[in-house]
Amino acid sequence: MSKNKNTYKFDNMEAFRKLKTNIEFSAVEKPIKVVNITSSCANEGKSTVAFHLAQVYAAKYKKVLVIDCDLRRPKMHRYFQISNQVGLSDLLVFIDKQPDLSTYIQEVTVTDCENAISVLTSGSKVPNPQELLGSSKFKKLLQALSKQYDFIILDCPPISMISDTFYVSNVSDGTIFVISMKDTKKDIALSSIRQLERSRSKILGIVLTKTQNLSSYDYYYTYE
């Protein structure tokens, strides 16, 4: 991480407000509307980052959407305390029939958040998550949703475990990479970053969680 020129440390929600600001400043050529969040391994805090980032975006924008793209180990329905009976996988199966999106997307009111947050959970378990996320259906769905929402956050699977994330990162405007300073080995993190770079993903920044002498809800945001 020594190559990064700047590091910011903030406590709790202030960290996510700063993260949001830096994402917006990264929009040099075109606005950044779709961001995917991933990590090397499980339990590094990527879903927590996705959840709180959605809160700070919803404080500014009326239409914020969170999509749980981790079709194998979904968590967003737990964070938002909603049903996961139907979601992304179900929507992709029936997308050609032009289904009513309100059947799949839930509106959630979060404490201390002025605007409701739209959530598309992972949905039914499927045997082929990679095929669904790499399909033209998913790409077209994301393009359509980006016209309806001000900002979209994609909670993706860990990179070192499966390759689903690379399909998602290639159709998003950028990637936020989450690293647990307590749990993640440096070589694994660097390998994951190189994989993202080889897949031509635009890495917007790195969020470090569980830093020494800080609680697990304090974050660093770094960028080159």
Automatic annotation (TrEMBL):
Which keywords does the record carry? ATP-binding, Kinase, Nucleotide-binding, Transferase, Tyrosine-protein kinase
Enzyme Commission number, as recorded: 2.7.10.2
Q: So which domain of life are we looking at?
A: Bacteria
User: InterPro entries of this UniProt entry?
Assistant: AAA_dom, Bact_polysacc_biosynth/exp, P-loop_NTPase, Wzc-like_C
What reactions does this protein catalyze?
Answer: L-tyrosyl-[protein] + ATP = O-phospho-L-tyrosyl-[protein] + ADP + H(+)
- A GO CC term attached to the entry: plasma membrane
Is the keyword ATP-binding assigned to this protein? yes
Keyword Iron set for record: no
What GO molecular function annotations does the UniProt record carry, in alphabetical order?
A: ATP binding; non-membrane spanning protein tyrosine kinase activity
Q: Which residues form the AAA domain?
A: 43-162
Stated family = Belongs to the CpsD/CapB family.
The name of this protein is non-specific protein-tyrosine kinase
